[in-house]
């Protein structure tokens, strides 16, 4: 079933690429993205603190965190020592370590455009009754796909045990 969903997703991506590339202007692309790809916001969690909440119904098989950033897979791997040597503030290094896992204990794999452009999936909470599944979309980039219909106002969850 996941293979069929991914195949349909790839077909949609290819179609959107052709339409976006040759037919639509930037404003039309942006408006289409707002209409069809935005499903969530950060809100009060039913578990603790903040979480990711559906702002409209999300059907089964949807990737709710689509981005228009064409470089989302551009990852920069930096060592903690390199960050310190370059004079990066210790609290910024903490953000890098907290939000961006690395290939080792002393490295962080961060988006090249920096932590200020993180998407809200970083605020997903854990549940063994998760409504999102983790999928690998490239060597080091994880994506999420709904494993059932999600109702407006419902919190989105992943199972942290499946996200390693």
**Number of folding domains?**
1
CATH architecture: Beta Complex
Assign an overall shape.
globular
Widest sheet, order of strands: 1-2-8-5
Which CATH top level class fits?
Mainly Beta
Mean pLDDT across every amino acid position: 80
Could you name the ranges where pLDDT drops below 50 across 5 or more consecutive residues? Answer: none
CATH topology: Beta-clip-like
CATH superfamily: SET domain
Tally of alpha and pi helices: 4
How would you name the oligomeric state of the polypeptide chains in this document? single chain
Biggest sheet layout: 4 strands, mixed
Main features:
164 residues; alpha+beta; Beta-clip-like; 4-stranded mixed sheet; 4 helices; 8 strands
Give the SSE layout.
Elements lengths: L1 H21 L3 H12 L2 E5 L5 E5 L20 E5 H6 L4 H10 L7 E5 L13 E2 L5 E5 L5 E5 L8 E4 L6
Parallel strand pairs: 5-8
Antiparallel strand pairs: 1-2, 2-8, 3-4, 6-7
